[in-house]
């Protein structure tokens, strides 16, 4: 019970911190709308304009992924700037347990992206919000967000050693959502991208959400694979976090010098 209380309170704390940042608020408000607008016009100009709802959902998943990616790297960087990263690492808890709420908080704030893109598409572009399986959609979205939060821990664990983590964020954002099939079908990508996408929880999260919207396949197997890979990422992130913490202490690179 104390463990879950720690995660819950820490996640709420970091959500409040994110809500105090003007940059985070502006990004969260406008980036999903821009991505949704671009996706709608791309699909309208193509040969499958009837898939506009999928475009809106895909844009929402893109925004959630961006929130997790930049939030994970940015949160560690913010702890450095605030001078609290050392205290987190010195707390009498495993470091992964203290960083996980940060990545989970960024994923939770990404929930707005999914809601905003759907409402934007429905109100502005008159996209009929006909979800094939509303129950599966209501379950798959928060489960996918939880899975991406676990994946964020693995990313954040590597950012402890990297004072310039934002440079890696910019490199990872578009390739990951591209090979995950969030907006572009995986079938149109080169064959060598298939194995890469298959090991990413983002691929299965996007598939589960899309299947719940279109009814094109069983949602629960895709969601199960997403959570299974995410749990592996969580465990790997805990191991890597402990390793990089010891290495950062030995090399005196934990603080921003």
Set down the secondary structure blueprint.
Blueprint (H helix, E strand, L loop, with lengths): L1 H18 L2 H24 L6 H31 L2 H6 L4 H15 L1 H14 L9 H26 L5 H15 L13 H6 L2 H14 L4 H33 L6
Helix pairs in contact: 1-5, 2-3, 2-6, 3-5, 3-6, 3-7, 3-8, 3-10, 5-7, 7-10, 7-11, 10-11
What would you say this structure looks like, in words?
α1 (2-19) packs across α5 (95-109), α2 packs antiparallel against α3 and α3 packs antiparallel against α10 (201-214). This protein starts with a helix and ends in a 6-residue tail after the last helix. The chain has 257 residues and is mostly helical. The protein contains 11 helices and no strands. Helix content is 79%, strand content 0%. The longest helix has 33 residues, at 219-251. The model has no long low-confidence stretch (mean pLDDT 79). It has helices at residues 2-19, 22-45, 52-82, 85-90, 95-109, 111-124, 134-159, 165-179, 193-198, 201-214, 219-251. It is globular, with a radius of gyration of 18 Å.
């Amino acid at each position: 019970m104390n463990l879950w209380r720690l995660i819950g309170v820490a996640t709420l704390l970091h959500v409040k911190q994110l809500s105090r940042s003007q940059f985070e608020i502006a990004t969260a408000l406008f980036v999903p709308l821009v991505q949704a607008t671009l996706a709608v016009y791309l699909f309208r100009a193509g040969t499958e304009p009837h898939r506009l709802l999928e475009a809106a959902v895909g844009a929402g998943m893109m925004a959630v992924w961006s929130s997790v990616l930049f939030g994970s790297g940015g949160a560690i960087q913010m702890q450095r700037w605030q001078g609290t990263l050392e205290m987190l690492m010195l707390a009498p808890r495993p470091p992964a347990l203290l960083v996980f709420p940060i990545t989970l908080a960024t994923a939770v704030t990404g929930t707005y992206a999914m809601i905003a893109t759907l409402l934007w598409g429905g109100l502005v572009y008159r996209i009929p919000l006909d979800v094939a399986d509303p129950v599966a959609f209501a379950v798959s979205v928060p489960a996918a967000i939880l899975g991406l939060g676990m994946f964020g821990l693995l990313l954040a664990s590597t950012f402890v050693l990297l004072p310039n983590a934002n440079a890696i964020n910019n490199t990872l954002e578009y390739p990951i959502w591209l090979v995950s099939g969030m907006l572009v079908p995986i079938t149109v990508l080169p064959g060598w991208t298939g194995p890469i996408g298959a090991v990413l929880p983002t691929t299965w999260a996007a598939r589960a959400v899309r299947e719940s919207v279109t009814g094109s396949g069983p949602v629960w197997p895709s969601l199960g694979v997403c959570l299974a890979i995410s749990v592996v990422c969580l465990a790997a992130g805990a191991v890597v976090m402990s390793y990089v913490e010891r290495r950062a202490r030995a090399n005196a690179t934990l603080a921003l010098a």
